Amino acid sequence: MVKVLMVEGMSCSHCEMAVKKALGELEGVKDVQVDLENKKVEVNGENLKDEKLKEAIEDAGYDVVEIH
Fold first, then answer.
1. pLDDT tens figures, 50-66
2. pTM of the shown model
3. Cα(66)–Cα(54) distance, integer angstroms
4. d(CA 60, CA 56)
């Protein structure tokens, strides 16, 4: 299962690492790819819940605009 999240507020490699760390700690997450230029985060894993993904990113200080 792959989820694509559009995230506002990411601008540097520190932001990328913070988002990867926050999502990587969630159960079921296998891989996280961050595209800073397009403000896109791809999460690969099993049983991914939109609300948990959103909560983890928002707790890290960023805003989730959309989830596909």
1. 999 999 999 999 999 99
2. 0.94
3. 9
4. 6
